């Protein structure tokens, strides 16, 4: 007798987001090409080697890709057990800057180890993602209360204060707190408290600007000078406004389609740190508005694909790891472009995957490995 019901056999397969892989690959390749174009002159003048910055960056990138590949095959729950150690490790590195830090361009933010410079602030960004994702999952529904949110955000404050006080790196401190803020925001159904906090922070920033402007003739320190230079860069063209003005000249001279790759004038000693924080302005000069828009679209595509993965992650912990990466990328890209276009005061923020910096690219690729690990845990059921 034939069965009354026909059972349809189901098969399962692991999800693979080829768009995400292509997007990250394009950002890495584009970043290396632009970095070589931007840094070759400075490398020739400073080190008598046009490949100096490019060689160091590609070495860090290749190392980061190996790390990314290995991390992608490690079940992501493994990192939950190490999240506390990651937090402690990042804090120890930050405090090691005090006795062993290396000063570069007036900033003591690096530790030299076996011929390699490590920037602990970049490690801290990764550590806060690992730590907070685990903490939020352990807190459960308590994270939705005011007390729970304050506790979660409060765990980031020792790291934020250590970065600011020890390294005087306000931008990295803001990014670490911003990552924590976004991760807590995502898991909270009540957005009112975050809106209130946002309004309060904006009000405090506005008050700080007002105080600086009212006391511009007094001793306001170099951060006060940066705010004044932001409001009127021409008045500080010989000092704090010089870099901003040169960046704006580069952006304006690029036009719609730019001068062509390698044809920038501002990178020829006019724009300080062109290969670092101000690399976006050289992109605008060489590739124009169209090229800059393409770069922004690549970052938006990256965030969109990550959002899809987070929505389909197997559990909350996996989703939060991806959200942490998204927050890191989004905050850093927005602040970098805002600084370069003089929308906010100059704080020194690198452009992910594109600016020069070995610690940054290795840390980012580690985070990408976490995203791929979460992706491997997504099971697609095919009928």
Descriptive report:
This protein is mainly α. It folds into two domains: 17-81 and 215-377, no CATH class; 82-213, no CATH class. It contains 14 helices and five strands. It has helices at 18-47, 52-72, 78-81, 83-100, 120-139, 146-154, 157-167, 170-187, 192-214, 221-231, 242-254, 279-311, 316-340, 358-376; strands at residues 11-14, 101-104, 107-113, 116-118, 379-382. Strands 2-3-4 form a three-stranded antiparallel sheet. It has a two-stranded antiparallel sheet with strand order 1-5. A hairpin with a 2-residue loop joins strand 3 and strand 4. Helix 12 packs antiparallel against helix 13 (316-340). It is globular, with a radius of gyration of 22 Å.
List the helices and strands and how they pair.
Layout: E1 11-14, H1 18-47, H2 52-72, H3 78-81, H4 83-100, E2 101-104, E3 107-113, E4 116-118, H5 120-139, H6 146-154, H7 157-167, H8 170-187, H9 192-214, H10 221-231, H11 242-254, H12 279-311, H13 316-340, H14 358-376, E5 379-382
Antiparallel strand pairs: 1-5, 2-3, 3-4
Helix pairs in contact: 1-2, 1-12, 2-14, 4-5, 4-7, 5-8, 5-13, 5-14, 7-8, 8-13, 11-12, 12-13, 13-14
Nearest-angstrom radius of gyration? 22 Å
Structural class: mainly alpha
> How many runs of DSSP E, i.e. beta strands?
5
- The largest beta-sheet arranges its strands as 2-3-4
Q: How would the global form be characterised? A: globular
Ranges where pLDDT stays below 50 over 5 or more residues in a row are 1-11
